[in-house]
UniProtKB/TrEMBL annotation:
This is Internalin. Keywords: Signal. Residues 1-24 form the signal peptide. The lineage of its organism: Bacteria, Pseudomonadati, Pseudomonadota, Gammaproteobacteria, Oceanospirillales.
Length: 493
């Protein structure tokens, strides 16, 4: 169902959005059409950003991705395993998922909607990620020290149940998954991260291709080069390119970073980019030098991740807590994937609309400003509709609960027009500009130099002024005058 509510916004029937999922749920539930997340894994790795206060030995439900607030297995905690390692990573065109992963110590977040939307992490990711209209350059430094490991009290006997575990195993066999989950935490990985990102945003995708092509970024060395051709850009065009450098440190002594980048963020434009470029370089040098010497004890690190072990992969005593695993349908997993993906896309569109309203407001035709405001609201509402459904699907993995929940939202939308996904015209996120063709002015400058009409140093001085040559009718007669690039362009064929 498509119902028009405005020239650039439409209500969408959910069946048309997720037709693949609808087909999946109607097929026969043969074993090949079913997959159990739990049955395929002997353990889980859970991001520390979801909850960094979990005790070792804590029960965990791998189907709903939830920790339970008790420790059903007895054991000892050891910190004698592992050693401190430092690693550095460089990424160009860093995506939303990659930034979240970097902020969380490179733990895969793709299957966990709670990890995809995690307060500050998601906020930073949507502001720093590459898009059709922006480039993203990221440097990350990570330190991984000793980890806490759960060991049996008696190595010869292996793990045994705690008093809480005994009660659940003896009295609640019918509620094992609910009360004890299916795994328990057997190690806690600690670490520290330094995240340095330079985000370059443009008026539109064409500017990203054309202007961005003249920016050379050596992330490893923290060096940014602006090619001379961009001298031909007018001041307004340079002002339209927004540069943001941010650095975030987790663990160690984050206050030291503030001596380089106050408030952890600095913004510039291409008209005067050097402060941003300098701080980008200084932050990377800080990561390679000062940062790595800030760690003397485990308390200097943050929780990066938890690793678990399944009850049915442990001792005979612990296996008494192992639940009978239920299968999770392909339809549920496919729907969860699609909802999560659409949530992130809507979130990025909402961020772009917000950037336009805060940064490029004067570039938008007055008649379209209210449309961009509405697009931001619509994208935000869509994102949280997708998030709500994805979160439900994650915590209700069995049977048809997930698909039925989404179908119920669809039914309400169709009958009342409330709670619907609303489409919008994404072209509003691309602010048009006239073709600049600075490369033609550069070719003309080179032609004049190569012909001997002007020396290279003098022609470069003209370029700094944004002047390009206007040739005589007969090119062999030389240069008529030097004039601003936009005027010289009118004389070129």
């Amino acid at each position: 169902m498509n119902r028009k509510i405005g020239s650039r916004f439409m209500l969408i029937g959910f069946a048309t959005v997720f037709s693949l999922t609808a087909a999946a749920v109607n097929q026969d539930k043969t074993p090949s059409a079913l997959q159990s997340q739990s049955l395929d894994n002997f353990s889980s790795t859970i991001p520390g950003l979801v909850n960094d206060h979990v005790l070792i030995g804590t029960a965990y439900n791998s189907s709903t991705h939830e920790f339970l607030n008790h420790q059903p297995v007895k054991g000892l905690v050891s910190e004698q395993y592992g050693g401190v390692q430092f690693d550095f990573r460089y990424d160009t065109d860093t995506s939303y998922d990659e930034i979240l992963s970097a902020l969380n110590g490179s733990v895969d977040l793709s299957v966990n909607i709670s990890a995809v939307q995690v307060n500050a992490g998601a906020h930073i990711a949507k502001e720093s990620a590459e898009s059709e209209y922006a480039s993203s350059y990221t440097f990350t430094a990570g330190a991984t020290p000793k980890k806490k490991v759960f060991l049996p009290i008696d190595a010869n006997l292996g793990f045994s149940l705690s008093p809480v575990g005994e009660i659940i195993a003896n009295d609640y066999q019918g509620r094992l998954m609910e009360l004890a989950g299916d795994e328990f935490v057997t190690s806690i990985e600690y670490g520290a991260q330094l995240f340095v990102n330079m985000h370059v945003e443009y008026l539109n995708s064409q500017d990203k291709r054309e202007i961005g092509g003249y920016l050379g970024v050596d992330i490893a060395g923290g060096i940014v080069n602006v090619q001379g051709e961009l001298d031909f850009l007018d001041d307004q065009s340079k002002e339209s390119v927004k540069i943001t450098v941010r650095a975030i440190q987790k663990g160690g002594e984050p206050t030291r970073l503030l001596t380089i980048i106050p408030n952890n963020i600095v913004t510039c434009s291409l008209s005067y980019p050097q402060p941003c470029f300098d701080l980008f370089s200084q932050a990377i040098q800080y990561a390679k030098n000062d940062f790595r010497y800030q760690f003397n004890q485990l308390s200097d690190y943050n929780v990066v991740s938890y690793k678990t072990t399944r009850y049915d992969r442990s001792t005979a005593d612990v296996k008494r807590l192992a639940p009978a695993y239920q299968t999770i349908s392909f339809a549920r997993n496919q729907l969860l994937f699609e909802l999560t993906d659409r949530y992130k896309k809507a979130l990025m569109d909402e961020q772009r609309a917000a950037d336009i309203l805060s940064t490029y407001y004067s570039w938008i035709p007055e008649s379209e400003r209210s449309d961009v405001v509405q697009l931001r609201t619509v994208a935000y509402n869509n994102a949280w509709l997708f998030f709500d459904a994805a979160e439900y699907c994650q915590t209700h993995p069995y049977g048809n609960l997930c698909v039925d929940y989404w179908n119920n939202i669809d039914s309400i939308c169709r009958s009342t027009g409330e709670g619907c996904v609303i489409s919008y015209d994404r072209s509003m996120l691309d602010i048009p500009t006239t073709a600049r063709k600075v490369e033609q002015c550069e070719r003309a400058r080179q032609q004049a130099t190569n012909a001997g009409f002007v020396t290279e140093p003098l022609s470069l001085a003209y370029r700094k002024l944004r002047w390009a040559p206007v040739f005589m009718t007969d090119l062999s007669d030389g240069i008529f005058e030097w004039t601003p690039c936009e005027f010289a362009l009118t004389t070129y064929e």
